[in-house]
Amino acid sequence: MGDNNQDPTAAANIAAAAAANAGRTEPGQTPKNPRGRENSCPMSLAGAIATCSILLLLSVPFAEGQPSEAFMMAQILSDSGCGAFAGLVAATAAAGEAFLAQMASDAGLTIFCPDEEAVAAFGQRRFSNLSADDQVALLLYHGVATLYSEEALGAMFDTKVATLANGPGDYDIYISGGTVTVIVSSSVNAAAVTKKVFDSDPLGLAVYLIDSVLVPEERTAFWDWKLVLLLVLCIVMGLVLL
User: Fold this and answer.
1) What residues pair up with 199 in beta bridges, in sequence order?
2) Confidence class for position 170, pLDDT limits 50, 70, 90
3) Residue 55 has pLDDT above 50, yes or no
4) How far apart are CA 24 and CA 32, in angstroms?
5) Quick one: how far is CA 39 from the chain centroid?
6) Would you give the DSSP letter of residue 161?
7) What percent of the chain has a predicted confidence (pLDDT) above 70?
8) pLDDT at 34
9) How far apart are CA 167 and CA 94, in angstroms?
10) Cα(87)–Cα(227) distance, rounded to whole angstroms?
């Protein structure tokens, strides 16, 4: 029978060694938590990457106002019965940017939006055959650099209004209100306002549906013809004086 009177110092050393061995992990053995249970929910590498990606995306600042305003304008135009025109604006970056910039201004923006039948009558091929500048000009010709209420349009009588289009050509339109309908006319054709689809001062946008695509006059051809006529007159006068 062994001696029961064990040295207290030796017993303390044995207990310390046992505690140290309890926290040690042998090769090939799964680590355990302090309570002796295996980790039931270790974070996988894929989960860590996904979490970091989300945090990085949240940390990237969006351009204030631009995404939401562009989406709202496209949605308003599409829902108002002029989705084809909205598609042309969306596919022509310069036109969309000009509309958004005018919406953000103090004056606001009024869009006379051709309905689906009007755009179909104008023709996708005809639009595609235009130069890039002419495509932008045609779309911006339907935008006015002021937010007009329905009452303000009705009070107009053959009022000349400048559009957002610029460059060679006559890009003014004429608005005539009335008790029945509002007529918007260009130098080439006219269109009737069939309904108001949107009017919001906070957003800076008013949209009216029209039954025809407005076509601006090509002033370049007019000035070329006038120059030729002037040259002919000068030649005739020169011959007479001789």
Assistant:
1) 206
2) confident
3) no
4) 9
5) 49
6) E
7) 63
8) 46
9) 14
10) 39
More confident residue, 152 or 240: 152
**For residue 220, what are its two tokens?**
């370049």
Helix or strand (DSSP H, E) at 153: helix 150-154
Which two structure tokens, joined as six digits, stand for 24? 């040690």
pLDDT for position 179: 58
- Please report, as a single letter, which amino acid is at residue 103: M
Q: Which of 206, 80, 203, 211 is nearest to 151 (CA)?
A: 206
Query: Mean pLDDT across the chain, nearest whole number?
Result: 74
Confidence of residue 63 (pLDDT cuts 50, 70, 90): very low
- Alpha-carbon distance of 157 to 209, in angstroms, equals 19
3-state secondary structure of 107: coil
User: For residues 217 and 189, what is the distance between their CA atoms, to the nearest angstrom?
Assistant: 9
- Which of 109, 73, 104 is CA-nearest to residue 89? 73
Note whether 183 and 175 are within 8 A (CB).
yes
DSSP state of 142: T
Beta strand 182-185 pairing with 109-114 = unpaired
Give per-residue burial for 217-240: e unless 16+ CB within 10 Å, then b. Answer: eeeeeeeeeeeeeeeeeeeeeeee
Give the tokens for residue 177.
């209100």
User: Which range has the top average pLDDT, 35-49, 76-90, 142-156?
Assistant: 142-156
Contact 107, 72 (CB under 8 A): no
